[in-house]
């Protein structure tokens, strides 16, 4: 909170690490080594954004037996945003939730249409509850 308040006071907006005693710039080397042993960087689909190259992780071939999709033969359908939902643009900061014609009328926290309204921390949901 102190770090955020200092940024507000100084008119700054930046990513900051206020836990430098425990969180090092190089990260947790043990955890990174384990991640590298088990996963490989891959293209990944992101809700409302589509596939982003080299943005995800998938199990290395030697760990594929732990992949629930393969193990249980699950096929995921391509993620489609509901018609007229602008969630992808909202989470990229290209439009505000109010610029979606469904906001607050058809799409509300109690009857969400798109993913940004579903959970309480979703941008549209928070915008609906707290305004701008
Ligand atoms: S208000 Fe609902 S429909 Fe519109 S962008 Fe947000 S989540 Fe999608």
Question: Would you write up a description of this structure?
Answer:
The chain has 132 residues and is an alpha+beta fold. The chain has a domain at 81-132. The chain contains 6 helices and 2 strands. The protein has a two-stranded antiparallel ribbon with strand order 1-2. The two termini are 20 Å apart. The mean pLDDT is 93. It binds iron/sulfur cluster. Iron/sulfur cluster is lined by residues 85-87, 90, 97, 100, 102-103, 107, 113-114, 116-117, 124.
Briefly, what is this?
With 132 residues, the protein is of the alpha+beta class. The protein is built from 6 helices and 2 strands.
Structural class: alpha+beta
State the total count of DSSP E strands: 2
Order of helices and strands: HHEEHHHH
Average pLDDT number: 93
Our count of helices gives 6
Largest sheet: 2 strands, antiparallel
Q: N-to-C terminal Cα separation, in Å?
A: 20 Å
Gyration radius (Cα, Å) is: 20 Å
| Morphology | flat
Strand content: 5-15%
Across the major sheet, the strand order is 1-2
Bound molecules: iron/sulfur cluster
> What percent of residues adopt helix (DSSP H or I)?
25-40%
Contiguous low-pLDDT stretches (5 residues minimum) are: none
What key phrases describe this protein's structure?
single chain; 132 residues; alpha+beta; two-stranded antiparallel ribbon; binds iron/sulfur cluster
How do the strands and helices of this protein lay out in sequence?
Blueprint (H helix, E strand, L loop, with lengths): L1 H9 L18 H10 E8 L3 E10 L8 H4 L15 H5 L23 H4 L4 H8 L2
Antiparallel strand pairs: 1-2
